[in-house]
Amino acid sequence: MSAERTNWAGNLTYAATRVHTPGTVQELQDLVARSDRIRALGSRHSFSDVADTTAELVSLAGLPSHIEVDRAHRTVTVAAGLRYGDLATQLQRKGWALHNLGSLPHISVAGAVATGTHGSGDGNGNLATAVSAVQLVGGDGELVTLRRGEPDFDGAVVALGALGVVVSLTLDLEPAFEVRQVVYDDLALSTAAERFDDIFATAYSVSIFTDWASGTALSWVKHRVSESDDWTPEPSWMGATLADGPRHPVPGMPAEFCTEQLGVPGPWYDRLPHFRLEFTPSSGEELQSEYLVPREHAVEAFGAVAKLADRIAPVLHISEIRTVAADDLWLSSSYGRDVAGFHFTWKKDPDGVRPVMAEIERALAPYDVRPHWGKLFTVDSAQVRERYPRLDDFRRLRADYDPDDTFGNDFLDRYVG
Ligand SMILES: Cc1cc2nc3c(=O)[nH]c(=O)nc-3n(C[C@H](O)[C@H](O)[C@H](O)COP(=O)(O)OP(=O)(O)OC[C@H]3O[C@@H](n4cnc5c(N)ncnc54)[C@H](O)[C@@H]3O)c2cc1C
């Protein structure tokens, strides 16, 4: 049994009676076959209780961490428990890349895919959009593979662990590429609102970080280097000033935790995440929430959140705004529409944060917002369900793939039903 009984942030102690770590896929299959109730656990980075259960958990950290590149089809099949950072360095050595990464390379591939984890970029779908096949252990212990193009596939990728324990995922690849990352200081929030679309269209991936109260933002602009590249960062952009040294998104935190900036070209995997694999990321003691708003409402939503600056700032480390391209994955927060993500890294003060989260949720309610499954939210479960047009199809899928409710938990009961 593993000693890991809390999530990464320590805000959740898993209610599970046991955490198993099988050493082979066969052991995992036997375990699932004899369990009445069991759920997969990834790298424990979710803040919500999406992974938790009062029964048993199974971690794939003990399974072999193989990766297999198929050059002809430009895909890689990876062990589901592998961390993105470890996968990325192996892909780079072989000359390949993924289209995007989240801000943190320490998160497991299966766990990230299961909740629709995303990076930024107007043209970049979330990380789950790279998945072309899912192999999972079903409730009877048998292996099942679902492939892109099959009728159920779009429901089986962002699946919150509800259909089984995923043992491997096949992901689309592209040839390795380089990225140049620069930071701009002091983007006025009024400019961010007025020129929202221009700002996010500036580069392959753009994030803006603000505390809302200062009236300004730091902008992280990640430019994909092309062969005929003549890009040089402007000293001034959107009224903001090119940073004269490396920055950390959270004021006062050391920039050495962050991936290289100042426009120095480097491999995709060492620029697209904000944080380096070898450092403990972010600010450590934190909680997170994120709300994904359809792009057509992004500017109004921005204004609605900005009005709450005085309520938000005292309990906030930092906010990040990103964009994500639409996809077809039923439970994805960007299903059917391009979105802007309004993310909040909170101080670890659950009682102080909860009412502020609720105020933000009320302010964003008119905009058909979907909360990030892996982060904290207080949105009423009926409202969450209304915001997923393919929820009935997902319920049918659950009934087909998990008729005995082997992989159920309270979270699924609340938000999926
Ligand atoms: C510091 C930090 C930075 C973050 N940055 C980002 C970001 O940039 N973008 C973003 O969108 N999110 C981000 N997140 C949120 C994070 O990506 C999600 O919560 C993600 O789901 C965590 O993955 P995990 O491997 O830790 O899974 P867990 O939290 O352990 O589990 C999450 C879900 O995945 C399921 N799951 C895990 N493994 C399997 C499996 N093998 N088979 C089936 N289901 C499985 C679990 O059952 C559960 O439902 C961040 C979180 C932290 C702590």
TrEMBL record:
<dbReference type="InterPro" id="IPR036318">
    <property type="entry name" value="FAD-bd_PCMH-like_sf"/>
</dbReference>
<dbReference type="GO" id="GO:0071949">
    <property type="term" value="F:FAD binding"/>
</dbReference>
<dbReference type="Pfam" id="PF04030">
    <property type="entry name" value="ALO"/>
</dbReference>
<dbReference type="GO" id="GO:0080049">
    <property type="term" value="F:L-gulono-1,4-lactone dehydrogenase activity"/>
</dbReference>
<dbReference type="InterPro" id="IPR016167">
    <property type="entry name" value="FAD-bd_PCMH_sub1"/>
</dbReference>
<dbReference type="InterPro" id="IPR010031">
    <property type="entry name" value="FAD_lactone_oxidase-like"/>
</dbReference>
<feature type="domain" description="FAD-binding PCMH-type">
    <location>
        <begin position="12"/>
        <end position="176"/>
    </location>
</feature>
<protein>
    <submittedName>
        <fullName>Xylitol oxidase</fullName>
        <ecNumber>1.1.3.41</ecNumber>
    </submittedName>
</protein>
<dbReference type="InterPro" id="IPR016171">
    <property type="entry name" value="Vanillyl_alc_oxidase_C-sub2"/>
</dbReference>
<dbReference type="InterPro" id="IPR006094">
    <property type="entry name" value="Oxid_FAD_bind_N"/>
</dbReference>
<dbReference type="InterPro" id="IPR016169">
    <property type="entry name" value="FAD-bd_PCMH_sub2"/>
</dbReference>
<dbReference type="Pfam" id="PF01565">
    <property type="entry name" value="FAD_binding_4"/>
</dbReference>
<dbReference type="GO" id="GO:0016020">
    <property type="term" value="C:membrane"/>
</dbReference>
<dbReference type="GO" id="GO:0050582">
    <property type="term" value="F:xylitol oxidase activity"/>
</dbReference>
<keyword id="KW-0560">Oxidoreductase</keyword>
<dbReference type="GO" id="GO:0003885">
    <property type="term" value="F:D-arabinono-1,4-lactone oxidase activity"/>
</dbReference>
<dbReference type="InterPro" id="IPR016166">
    <property type="entry name" value="FAD-bd_PCMH"/>
</dbReference>
<dbReference type="InterPro" id="IPR007173">
    <property type="entry name" value="ALO_C"/>
</dbReference>
